Amino acid sequence: MALTQFVNPFIGTQITETGGGHSGNVNPGAQTPFGMVSFGPDTRGSGQPWGYGSGGYYYSDTTIQFFDLTHLNGPGCRGQGAVAMLPADTATQSLSSGAAYAHTDEAAEPGYYKVKFGNGITTELTATTRTGTMRLTYADAAKAFLIMNMKLNNSGAKYSNGVNPSLVDIKIGADSKSISGNAVASAFCDGTWAQPVYFYATFNKPLKSTSATDAGGDVATLQFDLADADKTVDFRVGISSVSIDNAKLNLDTENSALSFAEIKKQISDNWNHRLNTIQLDLSKPGAIDKLATPALKTAATENLKKFYTAFYRVFSGPTVYSDVNGDYRSMKQNDLTAAYDTLSVRDTANVSQYPFKIDGKDAGYKTHYSGFSMWDTYRSGAQLVALVAPDEASEMMQSLVADAQQCGAFPHWVDGSEDTIPMQGDHALNVIAGSYAFGAKKFDLAKARDFVRQSVFDPTSHCNNKLSEGRNADKPALPGYLSLGYIATDATPAWNASSATVEMITSDRSAGAFLSKLPSASSDQADIAGLFLRAKNWTNIFDDSASQIKLRAKNKAGVWQNGNFHEGTEPHYLWAFAHDWTALIGKLGGKAAAITRLNTLFSFDNSKPFKGTEPTGSNLNAGEGGTKFYIGNEPSFQTPWAYNWAGAPKYGQYVIPVIMRKNFSLNPGGLPGNDDMGATSAWYVLAALGLYPVIPSEAGLAVSTPQFSGITLWLGNGRKVRIGTDKQAMLDDVRYISEMKLNGAVYQGSWLPLEKIADGGQLKYTLSAEPTEWGAGDALTPPSGPGADYSKATAAPPAVQMIQ
């Protein structure tokens, strides 16, 4: 099916409409699924290292500063934006001031971007995995300029006014038909190493003048020799982290023969292939026309656009980093003490240098990936990518293993070949365990095991001097965590001790779960048991004596302190460790008390939660300092499904579609927060399916109401899962499950082990307009506990016949 018609790349390019205080920070440029190149526009945005437009584009801006070839999808920090260029009608055009445009003269679809400037110049962009093609149509053949400035990028915290000129270069080829050089993508989010981006470009029209190239060798102004009858220029460019020669090789291999139109069609076909891994019946030709009213038809179209735009963003990262010959820039930094602007270029690595075995047979990987926003994606995106694209997810996990071999340990947030620590914790363990659980099996499990064990047991474990526990610290936090069972506020520094403890608990559970599923598990039993015990360390920062029972911080002496949560508050993090929800519910006073606590979080009227006024969008997106639910950031993502463990799935079934309807829209401000390399978009997709990986490292899904009546989910093994409902939940506002069947047999648990559908299957739901008690009995409580048996539907045998 032609599903790209339902994608709107401008959703998420503006500050959110419903509170939260952040922008989606996505870019509408042209990118293949997981592509190295994201060829798109850069606008000024907030102009700050953190802020609106961190992905390079902000919808409110009225000028485009330049186009460039690398973007991150939805980051909280600015980054990338390398190889800046802008068509102009004068040789003196400043890229800093940019060119004016109107949104009425702008368009985008998957793999294609187009804009017409106020000066009449039209720019069209498309891409292959490692190359971009730009078609320029000038208004005046005598004023056909292209300005390239290697000093500019979407600057991060370092070199906020541009990059160090000594690190960049640009040179016009002797044939006057090419241009090459290198730019720099500044270090991401307080990173310590600027990334070289080499490029090689060709153009199909002769040059009239190049005399404006500056003496420093970092800015070039090209003037094309055009005729009035043909005022177009096709500009093709390849990039590489390794060399100009490799950039040229990427260009010659991927983008030497096809026309602009052929490349545009190729990338559109590629996107349609990816998007068709989840097929909604409503997207079939003629399906919307069969709906009864114009209002339903409009609503159906809007829902399809929200769904497929979200699914499109899921494939924005991680991104290809290796060249067509397998080369890429190593993570290894030889001199760990050098100043930022004196760091030498890191060595070249190749995928062939990291062979491994699968089931005793020689194996390896073909593509190295970067762009890992792991604190964000471990809660949604990693599992979804592994489920629908396990081969690519396996290569991504092998990339992390290779990174660890180079820099000494698993990295934290990978941009290019740099590791940064925007958030506390050791999130790679969650990503690796979750990806493995959901289908990514083809990577070096032996070395992954070694690095997982190193991360959780060795206090000195570090990637380029960045400690594995992910504290921006002078001293390791792991020894204190191991001795106390929590990270104390008088660690160095005290910042975010409470949330850092929660993150450590989650990664401990992930490490134990991953080790327990490996062929080597029998030799790790004592360590697995110890890690599962550590995964209950949340009890050490749970204050039973507080007037409001809650997570709190402690100092080394055990004195309670308030706060210390990163980008959130205690209500946001309370439900962040889904692997032990039954124990947490017990601590809160039982199921009724937990439901009251959750209802308060979601702004329900406890006297009439289903009949009262719905929570507002702002109450469901309270922001980092709020005490209500916060869909705009990852720690709260799994919380709506906590009702399943509290014996009241109906409450989650009520609020999930409210969140989807009120906090996601088709407008530029239609994302509730940063998309964070597809993490927020993945939440929407999984919520629409009614299947959510609440425990990042566990091969299972919490069940809620599917929002579309007919869904075909194609798994990476070629099998399909058919999800059907008797009513349109989202269109008809029929929210509640009264019966669920798996392959024709009644299934009453609200937890679905992945193995039940791993080889395909059929889920069929009967829905109700009124709340039901489906999944509510004590006997139907899902499994819970760090080492629980999650291959079962329930924690205890149910009273009715079930599938087990």
TrEMBL record:
<dbReference type="InterPro" id="IPR005887">
    <property type="entry name" value="GH92_a_mannosidase_put"/>
</dbReference>
<protein>
    <submittedName>
        <fullName>Alpha-1,2-mannosidase</fullName>
    </submittedName>
</protein>
<dbReference type="InterPro" id="IPR012939">
    <property type="entry name" value="Glyco_hydro_92"/>
</dbReference>
<dbReference type="GO" id="GO:0000224">
    <property type="term" value="F:peptide-N4-(N-acetyl-beta-glucosaminyl)asparagine amidase activity"/>
</dbReference>
<dbReference type="GO" id="GO:0030246">
    <property type="term" value="F:carbohydrate binding"/>
</dbReference>
<dbReference type="Pfam" id="PF07971">
    <property type="entry name" value="Glyco_hydro_92"/>
</dbReference>
<dbReference type="GO" id="GO:0005975">
    <property type="term" value="P:carbohydrate metabolic process"/>
</dbReference>
<feature type="domain" description="Glycosyl hydrolase family 92 N-terminal">
    <location>
        <begin position="6"/>
        <end position="240"/>
    </location>
</feature>
<dbReference type="GO" id="GO:0006516">
    <property type="term" value="P:glycoprotein catabolic process"/>
</dbReference>
<dbReference type="GO" id="GO:0005829">
    <property type="term" value="C:cytosol"/>
</dbReference>
<dbReference type="InterPro" id="IPR014718">
    <property type="entry name" value="GH-type_carb-bd"/>
</dbReference>
<feature type="domain" description="Glycosyl hydrolase family 92">
    <location>
        <begin position="246"/>
        <end position="768"/>
    </location>
</feature>
<dbReference type="InterPro" id="IPR008928">
    <property type="entry name" value="6-hairpin_glycosidase_sf"/>
</dbReference>
<dbReference type="Pfam" id="PF17678">
    <property type="entry name" value="Glyco_hydro_92N"/>
</dbReference>
<dbReference type="InterPro" id="IPR041371">
    <property type="entry name" value="GH92_N"/>
</dbReference>
<feature type="region of interest" description="Disordered">
    <location>
        <begin position="774"/>
        <end position="804"/>
    </location>
</feature>
<dbReference type="InterPro" id="IPR050883">
    <property type="entry name" value="PNGase"/>
</dbReference>
